[in-house]
Specification:
Oligomer: single chain
Helix content: 10-25%
Strand content: 35-45%
Strand order of the largest sheet: 2-1-3-4
Amino acid sequence: MKREIKFRAWDKENKKMAQVSRIDFGPGGIKYLVDDSVLLEYTGLHDKNGREIYEGDILKVTSEDGESYVATVKWFGDEGYPAFDLAGIPATWCYESNALATIFESGVETCEVIGNIFENPELLEGKQ
């Protein structure tokens, strides 16, 4: 299965999110982007409302019985686990493997993007 590769970027100086339409790997191109912005990759997934899910998004995960928690989409490649998954899952919720994949494969829980770690850090207060 082929997935769409795309990015968005958090502009550190202007404190706003921007879509990335192209990346220049030429002299100074990618270095400039990384120095001034945080590059965030699209996971290839959509939330229950059809919104694209990116690394750094804050998701509200809700079970069939209405219980929910808030977690962050994270790329775990730097930790020897090359996959997007959720960080900050409460200990009372148990997944046998990758939580994000399990949620989308089972269809039992729903995910909704409620913000991101840069524009809405208050959504994570006391959660992580």
